[in-house]
Amino acid sequence: MAVHGSETSGQAKLEFALRIPFPSEREARIALQSLSPDREPRRGGIGKEMRAADNVLSVTWAADEARILRVSVGSFMDHLALVLETMEEFGPPAAP
Questions:
Q1: Considering Cα of 80, then 81, then 83, then 88, what sign does the dihedral take?
Q2: Which of 24, 57, 74, 96 has fewest C-beta within 10 Å?
Q3: Which residues, 6+ apart, have CB-to-CB distance to 74 below 8 Å?
Q4: C-alpha pair distances (Å), 18 with each of 45, 60, 68, 72
C-alpha cells in the first residue's frame, strides 16, 4: 500500500496503491474481471486503474480530495471482500 500526493496540471492529487496477492494467476484475473464493471459513480475527482500480473491484482487510485478517495477505496474493499468470500465458498477455479 502507498499513499502520496502528486502534482498534475497544477492541482495536487492524492494517490493510493494496493497490491492483493492471490494463490494463482487465474484467481487474480477472475477478481479483476469481477471488480472491473464497478465504475466510480462520480466522474470527476477520482480515477482508478486496475491490472492483474502473475498472481497479483494491483489497484491505483488518484483523487482530488481525501474524502472521495476514502469512499472509493472503502467501496472497493467491500466488493473485494465479497469476491474473496465467493472464491472461498466455491473453491479454486477449474482449469480452463
A1: positive
A2: 96
A3: none
A4: 19, 6, 16, 13
